[in-house]
Amino acid sequence: MYSYPGSLKKLIARLERLPGIGEKTATRLAFHILEERQERVKELADSLLEARREIQYCSKCHNITDEDPCRICSSPDRHREMLCVVESPRDVAAMEKTDEYRGLYHVLHGLISPLDDIGPEELYLDNFVERIRNEEKLEEVIIATDPSTEGDATAMYIGRQLEDEDVNVTRLAQGLPAGGDLEYADEVTLSRALSGRSKLDNK
Amino acid sequence: MYSYPGSLKKLIARLERLPGIGEKTATRLAFHILEERQERVKELADSLLEARREIQYCSKCHNITDEDPCRICSSPDRHREMLCVVESPRDVAAMEKTDEYRGLYHVLHGLISPLDDIGPEELYLDNFVERIRNEEKLEEVIIATDPSTEGDATAMYIGRQLEDEDVNVTRLAQGLPAGGDLEYADEVTLSRALSGRSKLDNK
């Protein structure tokens, strides 16, 4: 039975472990590596190790960082009255891209999902209430979890945790997405847009 | 302006160099790497380097191999009367999977493509005619290039090179693919299937 040389088979198998990479893509990538310049392959291998080694979670907000505390937590320019709770570091990047939010963050690294057996103890919530109390200027906690069952459950849980704290707890608005088409909006989106309707300023 | 930590940005940029990997996929893969176990990341990095270092082209057939000559060229069990010319090592794997072919190979690592400025000198054809003369038992050269403009041009070129040699030159049949649907076959496939029709054995 014919098979590829051992080190190629191994490379394909290890590429296949990556999320969203099936056998065909892994094979295509592996063949590309074989024909790529040696120093380019070395650069990729080094980057994998370096990123994995250097990047850690900020001990305050748990966002990814290469220094602790992270640049957002330690910046004097951030508004310490607001703290935004998000699922992942990618959500921090998305929020930052809006250029509208200048407050702090708290990254959960997951959402509560009873179906997948993920409870609040799996998220970065251990010292969350303590942190909220310690942020002296804090006035508002914005829960920015996904508008999904898991995001809703997580928002609800965090809301209850903060019930007795002296902060306003808010959640991102849900409704029609910009550029969307009402005709094609699903019922849940549409009914949330309806119940969240706001007064049109027409005076 | 917010941006990811340096080593993460670098990893994303280097993953983006891979074929078919855009910014979104590179970001997704990089975040996976950050959360992957350290030894797993090391295994992947090692595999990249090892495959690139160990795998070479067989000096006889130019297929990928970790020993020279490769296992097919040096096997006493292969039928040395037949030699199959293919574009790439992946085509060797495809031919071997059929379990029908037990001959030798010659891997071109490309196809002639005037539009992309790829001429025969870019392919592994330097010593091809010499090799054909040296294979003493050789009776037939099967050209198994793709049924495409480039595959046709390459087959034509190789055919002319072998014009004066004492071997039969054949090419893989073109026609309807197994399980295909005549109604949806394109005109070229259908007209090739028609001109390549064979007598039905109904006696």
Automatic annotation (TrEMBL), chains A, B:
Tell me one GO molecular function of this protein.
Answer: zinc ion binding
Q: Which residues form the Toprim domain?
A: 81-177
- Give the record's keywords alphabetically: DNA damage, DNA recombination, DNA repair, Metal-binding, Zinc, Zinc-finger
Annotated zinc fingers (C4-type), start-end: 58-73
Top-rank lineage group of the source organism: Bacteria
Q: Which Gene3D superfamilies match?
A: 3.30.60.80, 3.40.1360.10, 6.10.250.240, RecR Domain 1
Q: Name one GO biological process term.
A: DNA repair
Entry function = May play a role in DNA repair. It seems to be involved in an RecBC-independent recombinational process of DNA repair. It may act with RecF and RecO.
Q: Which family does it belong to?
A: Belongs to the RecR family.
- Which NCBIfam families does the record match to this protein? recR
Q: What is this protein called?
A: Recombination protein RecR
Q: Species name for this entry? A: Halarsenatibacter silvermanii
